[in-house]
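Subgroup meeting minutes
Present: P.N., E.W., G.H.
Scribe: E.W.

1. P.N. recapped why we're keeping a running log of single-chain structure predictions: easier to compare across weeks, and new members can see raw inputs and outputs side by side.
2. G.H. added today's entry (196 aa).
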Amino acid sequence: GFFLERLFKAKWWDYSDSILNIQGRICILYSLLWGMCGIIIVKVIQPLGHELVTLIPKDLAVIIAHLLVVYFVVDLTVTLVKLSELKSLLLQLDDVYCEVKSKFENVKISAREKVTLVGNKSKEKFAEAESFYRDIWSKREVIDSIPKELKERYENIIDKIATKHSRIFIAFPQFNSEKFKKAFNDVRNKIKLKVR
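Output recorded in log:
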């Protein structure tokens, strides 16, 4: 959990509401439940499995063991590639957020500079004010275009995440990030629509 949080800057599960938890990563209740499951597996399921495995001819057992190892290696590799792709998409989302913030900051700074300029020149106040409003009006087109272009990019990234990484969001329903909370909720909503 710690390494996943550091790598993705997101929480994959959260036991913060459970008593005796350690930073929401583990808690006493689920630790005891996993411990009991481990005891049941070792004391009950493993002996039954051992009896069944001894019935398999040795040559066939070796082949099955090799196939299982290959399966697990392929599954691990695919999972790591998918997680890497997800991280890349989250970085693209971060770029969209930063671009929106930057564009609006530039418009805000430009407007502030014009207001200061108009305020400092009292002789040509009317002409400057007219110029200021004309300039702001021309920037309005830029402001109006920002949401459309960036919303399309945002939706495209959300669609990619929902399509290619739904398995992760289904397997880890509490997977969340303060930075991408809205985006993660949008992904979950898209996945729910596809499942229905």
